[in-house]
């Protein structure tokens, strides 16, 4: 599912940005807070601690999202899940805009590339994060998991990527430039022929920049989001130092 204007043909590249743990640091531990809420949701359904842990891991591994397993096997209300899990995260007190990330996205030459977000979250969470980070005005559209559809797809499934391309009006997979912190998601895009699939493996602030090891199935590995300037140098506006 998507929001934004993605109709018609366009010959420019499309930069696909993952949102969670990519546009903000993993050190915020939002993923941990989310995991705690999902665990609590399993417990609220009457599962024991052991079963909750087991099913959470099983559904995430098998379906890409624990929610999909819950929908397939327990007929839960996805909107209720979203409110109690993603919707209850205290994002406003944790996240803050990063001027370097904003400047990096601003410097993408819009004559050469469009910018979309590609997320396994629902639209409300995606928009909330982009608004807090003050990046919403730089993104043409967001392709997200449509929790209203009981059979929705997600990364790293081919249907998700194919539908994202269709909505964004992309017919040439080589025009897609993608960055994500999840190796399976990046490998899936690469296997589909996306032009550049980059793994973001966050490097802690203060660490010296060093060469990243080669990872099979991806085009590049970066430790800072701003390193996309080097990986995709042809789509960035030249700026004076």
Describe this structure in words.
Helix content is 38%, strand content 12%. It has 241 residues and is of the alpha/beta class. The protein has two domains: 2-24 and 95-235, Rossmann fold (3-Layer(aba) Sandwich), CATH 3.40.50; 30-92, DNA polymerase, domain 1 (Orthogonal Bundle). It has a seven-stranded mixed sheet, sandwiched between helices. Helix 9 (183-191) links the parallel strand 5 (176-180) and strand 6.
- Number of H/I helices: 10
> CATH superfamily of the largest domain, called what?
HAD superfamily/HAD-like
Count of discrete domains: 2
Shape: globular
The average pLDDT value, as a whole number, equals: 92
Sheet having the most strands: 7 strands, mixed
Do you know the CATH architecture of the largest domain? 3-Layer(aba) Sandwich
Structural class: alpha/beta
Rg, Å, rounded: 18 Å
- SSE order, one letter for each helix or strand: EEHHHHHHEHEHEHEEH
Protein name: Pyrimidine 5-nucleotidase
Pfam family, one: Hydrolase
GO molecular function: nucleotidase activity
GO biological process, one term: pyrimidine nucleobase metabolic process
């Amino acid at each position: 599912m998507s929001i934004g204007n993605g109709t018609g043909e366009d010959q420019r590249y499309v930069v696909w940005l993952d949102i969670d743990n990519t546009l903000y640091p993993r050190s915020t531990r939002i993923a941990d807070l989310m995991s705690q809420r999902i665990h609590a949701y399993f417990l609220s359904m009457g599962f024991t601690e052991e079963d909750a842990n087991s099913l959470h891991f099983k559904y995430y591994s098998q379906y890409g999202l624990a929610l999909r397993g819950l929908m397939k096997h327990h007929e839960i209300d996805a909107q209720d899940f979203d409110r109690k899990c993603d919707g209850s995260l205290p994002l406003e007190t944790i996240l803050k805009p990063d001027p370097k990330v904003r400047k990096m996205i601003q410097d993408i030459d819009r004559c050469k590339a469009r910018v979309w977000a590609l997320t396994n979250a629902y639209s409300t969470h995606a928009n909330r994060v982009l608004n807090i980070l003050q990046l919403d005005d730089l993104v043409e559209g967001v392709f997200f998991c449509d929790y209203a559809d009981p059979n929705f797809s997600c990364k790293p499934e081919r249907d998700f990527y194919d539908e994202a391309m269709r909505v964004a009006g992309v017919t040439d997979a080589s025009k897609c430039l993608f960055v994500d912190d999840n190796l399976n998601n990046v490998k899936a895009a690469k296997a589909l022929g996306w032009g550049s699939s980059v793994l973001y493996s966050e490097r802690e602030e203060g660490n010296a920049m060093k060469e990243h090891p080669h990872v099979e199935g991806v085009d590049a590995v970066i430790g800072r989001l701003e390193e996309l300037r080097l990986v995709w140098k042809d789509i960035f506006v030249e700026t004076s130092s």
